[in-house]
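User: What would this chain look like folded?
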Amino acid sequence: MQFCLKKHLSILLLGISLTMLAENNKVTIWMIGDSITQTYQKRLAPLAGIGQALPKYCKPGVKVENRAVSGTSTKSFQDRGYWKAVEEGMKKGDYLLIKFGHNDQKKNRPAIYAEAKTLYRENLIKFIKAARAKGAHPVLISSMVRRIFYRSGANKGKLRPSLKDYPKYCRLVAKEHNVPLIDMNNISFSNISKMSHEESKKLYNHVPGDSKYTYWNKKTKGKGRVDNSHLNLNGAKIVAGWLVEDAKKQKLNLAELFK
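Assistant: Here's the prediction, encoded as structure tokens.
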């Protein structure tokens, strides 16, 4: 009887060990960034982020750790302690997807401001080196465009760039440090430029007045929400699809994790 119990206990412990081993061997895609990437609570629907939609494109066994936090920059993501947990959690073979820029450019907010050619660039390099030190694979993603159009002049009605030099320095860092780049700034600009104004609205967090979305009705007192920076769930799925498509087009190793 004692032998049987020991045998069953050994089998149970072996099963637990194998399960833990399998879990530890899973490839994890870590995502760091701001509100464009963040995963949102259901009560905030239709607001959604790229990282929220990405798991649907991943093969079974691939884990997505979306650690993006609304309102953060390359600077404040570190200062507020979010980066430490990611750095400690990464393991050999994982991927680190880095997408910042929207908040880094806010010069009137010193706690998050990171100048493009200096601190922003330096922080991207820091993330890259830290990932490589853990045996993980860094991938840079330039910031997608805001839905802002020229109001006058020869380009009236056309999509207007609004992220200054941040996409430029993201590209430069990728080139200088031999890091794969998914140039979402160019990808989104190209795709959204081909859409009508009404069609492009369907990507962003535009919520009509007196809609079914309780949170936004209460927040706007039934007036509706017009947001040309953040995505809705439909937009997040589409943009995550652009990310996957570009990874496959470039034949990045990252693409092997997608269906």
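The radius of gyration is 21 Å. If you want, I can go into more detail on any region.
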